[in-house]
Amino acid sequence: MSKRAMMGLILGAVLGVFCIFGINIRMGDQVTGLFLFATWFNRVVMGLMIGFYTPVSRKLLHSALRGGLLGLIVSFSLYSAMYFLDTPGFIAGIFYGIIIDVICTKYGEIK
To answer: How far is CA 64 from CA 27, 35, 45, in A?
Structure first.
């Protein structure tokens, strides 16, 4: 696994934990453990998807746009599967995609 992919995996897992805290604050007892796991796993998949992507450019603007788009795509899968109930989580996923891609592009290697 490349350095970029490993960074994406770790960042997705860490940001997924932050997402779980946010959901607990917003929804409290309304969420189940399965929903929390699905949310965390969605962020891990996002990190892997971004990490496995080999960027053509190291420009951070391109990275932010790409990360936002990939974050939107991956987050929409969970958002739609959960009957469009967690709009703040969906929006956070877009920003998490930007964060993951910018960090992976800045500190990951391009071969």
So the answer is: 29, 28, 18
Count of CB atoms within 10 A of residue 18's CB? 13
d(CA 54, CA 52) in angstroms, rounded, equals 6
Helices of type H across the chain:
3-27, 33-52, 60-81, 87-107
Q: What is the pLDDT of residues 7-42, one digit of tens each?
A: 999 999 999 999 999 999 988 888 899 999 999 999
Q: Which domain holds residue 19?
A: 3-107
CA gyration radius, the chain: 14
Task: Please work out, in degrees rounded to the nearest 5, the angle formed at the alpha carbon of residue 61 by the alpha carbons of 94 and 111.
Answer: 100
Angle value at C-alpha 8, between 105 and 99, nearest 5 degrees: 60
Tally the domains of the chain: 1
Which sign does the torsion angle of CA 84, 87, 93, 94 carry?
Answer: positive
